[in-house]
């Protein structure tokens, strides 16, 4: 008992020197999640070289063939296209949609959050109330509205996903920035005559990045799910583009007859979202200064 | 084996969804969607027609062959020499659901209400060039036209021309067909819970059913039209005896249902509900007749129809179903068959040269066109297959699917180059007048097809006195349109009605897409 108590402090200094990556990878769940994400991104990037067939060329004779059919390890969809190919290309579109939406919505949200925190007297109230209004609109409704006006398609879904991300990111950013704003070095930077832009970019932003990064990772998973849901409703990818949500939607009607068409894309979405959520959780733990002991 | 598993799964999901068994002597009919109202003058929905045929009658009825007009409320009729005056002699034993006797005044009122501009019926053109309708006496109606109209009797068999009771219409106003109804049909309005169920009660005096039925009187006490949007739930309810009849069967399930002993399936070969793609003939790229011809040659209809409808639709190799009155076999020969090599030759000859990106071009214009469609299961799937076929011959087809709520509005615009659509029709003249008359631009003539020769042929097909001249005229219209490849005819739906084990006498009719028509001859054994 006392031996352990004595040994533990000895181990501490070694850990304290660890960076974020080693601490992250020490968690086996996080390592697996990260591995899956890396694999998925690689598969998406290399889809044109990995895919065994043309994603848009159909073979109606092979329509709905089950997994394991010769030449079709995961079966074929309703158009007789190889599901391996379709999943690879679907992954590509889904990840890209998630990335663009998280980046666009995240950057805009960050900007608004910093502005609200920095110009607290003038901008905090208006910006954050607008964010509250935006939060009260369900993202699906926003997606439906955009699709009704501009026509369904990937851009409509990405815009809806971005809009849904902005207020959340603005809140997180503002929260962290308000804390940092009180710190001495910010006051010092202002005292030596830095412009507002310099203070925000050089001193405020770098010190708020941890929670933003964690949130972006978690949000990425949610955004993928939202994008798939919108595509499932027919608002997203238009034929013949492969997109995981749209693929699930196509297969839904044949769930009893050819379950693989819907189940495989759903499974992939599930794994992706799970991986990003686990990764986000682990990242938060790894970045949390209170956990560094 | 696979069918059994699917059946068991279906049964399981039904047990969860609707757990009440169908009541005694009550026919439970399932359908996908409800109608906005049940007023024949204000709704053109098939779901309205389904119930209106049961709640009301028309002057004439249509036989199973979809060609022979039979008596309805009129037991006989005469047509004047000049074809402009139809005299209908009405039955004397007919009463409305509330017991009031039916007379010629009711016919005059209902038809006048249908065509009156203030009613704003979208299908009032179906009543023809009506000059005046008048009651000669209590049981004789004179229907006078400005010019002959060979289609009149077919049109009067459609549910838009249903006879309704003036007093009830005036009492309920805008709520007629919403809060109540009064017709002369075999079943009477009992109650309606929108998007759930419409309950009808047997009309006790009714014995004037069309002669196409063995028994002119209804044999079930109640009919419930229940809305079940999910197809799997509908099928499961049917197999477990919680419902009796449905015509809303996904094509993939038809062959399995036909093998199930507890489900009785009925079909009808004279069923006219076709799918097609129409080209806007005045838009770039698709305004080239050779281009449209090549599209027709490049698309493998048989393979697509097999993959999309699982053998439960027929590839449309002509603009009209061969069983329709007025079908022209010569015109059918002008519709190109599947031949991708010929498609490539046609495009080459017309100057569409293959470009580096796999898409042809001519004078700097890429061989690319935009299709609008309402997002339906079948539509999406066959568009995607057409897209793949066209890609092989160097043509790019872009697809834009719309939700039904905005889709009809989008289809009325000039933003697209082609569209897909499916529709019911009665005769060749009926279908062609709807789509190819230049006066019907921009909808339903979304192709902007404006051709004086077609218009003249359609006019003659409607107004000529001699049936042979009418046939020749509609044949001419079909040839002109076929030669110009204004459409890519796609598929002819088949109608299938599934009935539970306790149900007898269910036979698919299919007028305007309505399977059960008057709902007569149907009995329940348990």
Description:
The complex is a heterodimer of chains A (293) and B (526). Chain A has 12 helices and no strands. With 293 residues, chain A is an all-alpha fold. Chain A has one domain (20-54, 74-291): MetI-like fold. In chain A, helix 2 packs across helix 12 (260-287). The two termini of chain A are 20 Å apart. In chain A, 45% of the residues are buried. Chain B has 526 residues and is α+β, with helices and mostly antiparallel strands. Chain B starts with a helix and ends with a strand. Chain B is globular. Chain B has a 7-stranded mixed sheet, with helices on both faces. In chain B, strands 14-21-13-20-18-19 form a 6-stranded mixed sheet, with helices on both faces. In chain B, strands 4-5-7-6 form a 4-stranded antiparallel sheet, covered by helices on one side. Chain B contains 16 helices and 24 strands. Residues 1-17 of chain B have low confidence and may be disordered. In chain B, helix 1 (2-17) crosses helix 6 (231-239) and helix 14 crosses helix 16. Chain B is 31% helix and 23% strand.
- Beta-strand share of residues of chain B: 15-25%
If you compute it from the alpha carbons, what radius of gyration of chain B comes out, rounded to the nearest whole angstrom? 24 Å
Query: Judging by the overall fold, what is the CATH architecture of chain A?
Result: Orthogonal Bundle
Structural classification of chain B: alpha+beta
The CATH topology of chain A is what? Answer: MetI-like fold
Number of helical stretches of at least 4 residues of chain A: 12
CATH topology description of one domain in chain B? Dipeptide-binding Protein, domain 3
Superfamily at the CATH H level of one domain in chain B?
Answer: Dipeptide-binding Protein, Domain 3
Major sheet summary line of chain A: none
Tell me the name of the CATH class of chain A. Answer: Mainly Alpha
> What order do the helices and strands of chain A follow?
HHHHHHHHHHHH
CATH class wording of one domain in chain B: Alpha Beta
Count of spatially separate domains of chain A: 1
The CATH fourth-level homologous superfamily of chain A:
MetI-like
Poorly predicted segments of chain A: 1-15
Helix content of chain B: 25-40%
Q: Which strand order spans the largest sheet of chain B, edge to edge or round the barrel?
A: 8-9-10-1-11-22-12
The termini of chain B sit apart by 30 Å
Net shape of chain A: elongated
Radius of gyration of chain A: 23 Å
Protein name (chain B): Peptide ABC transporter substrate-binding protein
InterPro entries (chain B): Peptide/Ni-bd, SBP_5, SBP_5_dom
Family (chain B): Belongs to the bacterial solute-binding protein 5 family.
Subcellular location (chain B): Periplasm
């Amino acid at each position: 008992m006392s031996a352990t108590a004595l040994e533990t402090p000895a181990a501490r200094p070694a850990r304290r020197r660890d960076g974020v990556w080693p601490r992250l990878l020490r968690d086996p769940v996080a390592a697996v999640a990260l591995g899956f994400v890396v694999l998925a991104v690689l598969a998406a990037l290399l889809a044109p070289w990995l895919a065994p067939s043309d994603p848009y060329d159909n073979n109606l004779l092979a329509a709905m063939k089950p997994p394991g059919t010769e030449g079709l390890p995961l079966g074929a969809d309703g158009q007789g296209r190889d599901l391996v190919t379709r999943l690879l290309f679907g992954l590509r579109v889904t990840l890209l949609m998630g990335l663009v939406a998280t980046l666009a919505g995240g950057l805009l949200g960050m900007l608004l959050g910093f502005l609200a925190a920095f110009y607290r007297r003038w901008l905090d109230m208006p910006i954050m109330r607008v964010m509250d209004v935006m939060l009260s609109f369900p993202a699906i409704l926003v997606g439906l509205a955009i699709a009704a006006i501009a026509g369904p398609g990937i851009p409509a879904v990405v815009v809806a996903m971005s809009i849904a991300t902005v207020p959340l990111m603005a809140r997180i950013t503002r929260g962290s920035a308000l804390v940092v704003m009180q710190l001495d070095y910010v006051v010092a930077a202002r005292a030596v005559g830095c412009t507002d832009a310099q203070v925000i970019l050089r001193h405020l932003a770098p010190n708020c990045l941890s929670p933003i990064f964690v949130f972006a990772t978690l949000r990425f998973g949610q955004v993928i799910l939202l994008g798939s849901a919108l595509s499932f409703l027919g608002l997203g990818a238009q034929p013949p583009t492969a997109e995981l949500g749209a693929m699930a939607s196509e297969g839904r009607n044949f769930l009893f007859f050819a379950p693989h068409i819907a189940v495989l894309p759903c499974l992939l979405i599930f794994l992706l979202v799970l991986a990003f959520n686990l990764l986000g959780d682990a990242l938060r733990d790894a970045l949390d200064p209170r956990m560094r002991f | 084996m696979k069918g059994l598993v699917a059946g068991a799964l279906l049964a399981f999901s039904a047990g969860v969804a609707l757990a009440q068994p169908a009541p005694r002597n009550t026919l439970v009919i399932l359908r996908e969607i409800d109608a906005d109202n049940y007023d024949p003058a204000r709704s053109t929905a098939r779901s309205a027609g389904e119930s209106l045929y049961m709640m009301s009658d028309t002057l004439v009825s249509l036989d199973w062959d979809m060609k022979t007009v039979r008596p309805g409320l009129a037991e006989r009729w005469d047509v004047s020499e000049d074809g402009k005056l139809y005299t209908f002699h009405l039955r004397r034993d007919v009463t409305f659901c509330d017991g009031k006797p039916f007379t010629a005044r009711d016919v005059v009122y209902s038809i006048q209400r249908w065509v009156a501009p203030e009613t704003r019926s979208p299908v009032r053109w179906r009543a023809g060039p009506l000059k005046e309708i008048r009651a000669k006496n209590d049981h004789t109606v004179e229907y006078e036209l400005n010019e002959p109209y060979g289609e009149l009797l077919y049109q009067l068999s459609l549910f838009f021309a249903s006879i309704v009771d003036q007093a009830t219409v005036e009492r309920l106003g805008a709520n007629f067909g919403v809060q109540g109804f009064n017709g002369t049909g075999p079943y009477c309005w009992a109650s309606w819970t929108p998007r759930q169920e419409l309950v009808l009660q047997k009309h006790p005096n009714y014995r004037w059913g069309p002669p196409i039925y063995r028994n002119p009187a209804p044999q079930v006490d109640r009919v419930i039209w229940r809305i079940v949007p999910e197809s799997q739930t509908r099928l499961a309810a049917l197999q477990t005896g919680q419902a009796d009849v449905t015509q809303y069967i996904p094509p993939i399930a038809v062959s399995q249902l036909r093998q199930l002993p507890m489900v009785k399936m009925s079909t009808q070969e004279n069923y006219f509900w076709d799918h097609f793609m129409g080209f806007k003939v005045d838009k770039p790229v698709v305004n080239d007749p050779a281009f449209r011809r090549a599209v027709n040659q490049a698309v493998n209809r048989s393979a697509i129809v097999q993959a999309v409808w699982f053998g439960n639709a027929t590839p449309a190799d002509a603009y009209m179903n061969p069983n329709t009155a007025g079908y022209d076999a010569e015109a059918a020969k002008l519709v190109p068959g599947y031949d991708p090599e010929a498609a490539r030759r046609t495009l080459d000859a017309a100057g569409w040269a293959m470009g580096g990106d796999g898409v042809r071009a001519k004078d700097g214009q890429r061989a690319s066109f935009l299709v609008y469609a309402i997002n339906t299961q079948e539509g999406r799937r066959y568009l995607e297959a057409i897209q793949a076929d066209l890609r092989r011959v160097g043509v790019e087809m872009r697809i834009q699917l719309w939700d039904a709520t905005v889709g009809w509005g989008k289809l009325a615009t000039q933003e697209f180059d082609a569209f897909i659509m499916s529709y019911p029709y009665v005769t060749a003249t009926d279908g062609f007048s709807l789509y190819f008359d230049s006066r019907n631009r921009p909808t339903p003539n979304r192709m902007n097809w404006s051709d004086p020769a077609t218009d003249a042929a359609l006019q003659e097909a409607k107004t000529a006195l001699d049936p042979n001249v009418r046939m020749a005229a509609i044949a001419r219209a079909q040839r002109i349109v076929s030669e110009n490849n204004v459409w890519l005819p796609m598929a002819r739906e088949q109608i299938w009605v599934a009935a539970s084990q306790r149900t007898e006498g269910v036979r698919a009719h299919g007028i305007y897409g309505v399977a059960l028509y008057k709902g007569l001859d149907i009995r329940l054994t348990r």
